[in-house]
Write a structure and sequence with these properties.
Layout lengths: L1 H28 L2 E5 L3 E4 L8 E5 L4 E8 L2 E5 L4 E5 L3 E3 L7 H10 L18 H6 L4 H8 L5 H10 L14
Antiparallel strand pairs: 1-4, 1-7, 2-3, 4-5, 5-6
Helix pairs in contact: 1-4
């Protein structure tokens, strides 16, 4: 139980801190230029099954208005809607920097078809990642949300959840 709690904390605390930093970045990010990396649909809402309101072609310029989860709200010359973050590169078309080129190589994003998903980090700027610091107060706050095994079991029963055994991953 303690091992699971420790793993959970190790995953939740950095994400919580990243979310706080991301919220600040979102405010700063409003009206940022972007370029479409691959053709995609433009949706009315930030959901894959939302109504399609347009299409985006690779190389199209757009303006990023807002970020929600893994989606950008964008505005093009023809339409406004939501597109998956992985289909858009922040910044102006044709402009590159050495730092971005090195980052592309180190993340596997250099070249065609070499997309690497980095959920939880995508959307944070290089400066935000460099400025990230351990926050003991946030760790203690996360630990304060821990519940006893009995409380967790009672909660699960109330929600009519069914227990399932999950095997540990093999150690390599």
């Amino acid at each position: 139980m303690q091992r699971i709690l420790l793993w959970t904390l190790c995953l939740i605390v950095p994400l919580g801190a990243a979310m706080i930093e991301t919220q600040a970045a979102q405010k700063k990010q409003a009206q940022e230029a972007g370029v479409v990396l691959k053709a995609d649909k433009l949706h009315a809402e930030p959901f894959a099954d939302a109504k399609q309101v347009g299409t985006l072609a690779k190389g199209d310029s757009l303006t990023i208005l807002k970020k929600t989860g893994g989606w950008y709200q964008v505005k093009t010359a023809d339409a406004q809607g939501w597109v998956r973050m992985l289909s858009v590169r922040r910044g102006e078309a044709g402009k590159s920097s050495a730092a971005k080129d090195v980052a592309a190589l180190s993340t596997g994003r250099a070249g065609t078809g070499q997309i690497v998903s980095t959920t939880g980090v995508r959307g944070l700027s290089e400066e935000e990642l460099k400025a990230a610091k351990f926050d003991e107060a946030e760790l203690k706050k996360a630990e304060s949300f821990a519940v006893s095994k009995g409380d967790a079991k009672a909660f699960a029963q109330k929600g009519k959840l069914v227990a399932r055994a999950v095997n540990y991953l093999p150690a390599n």
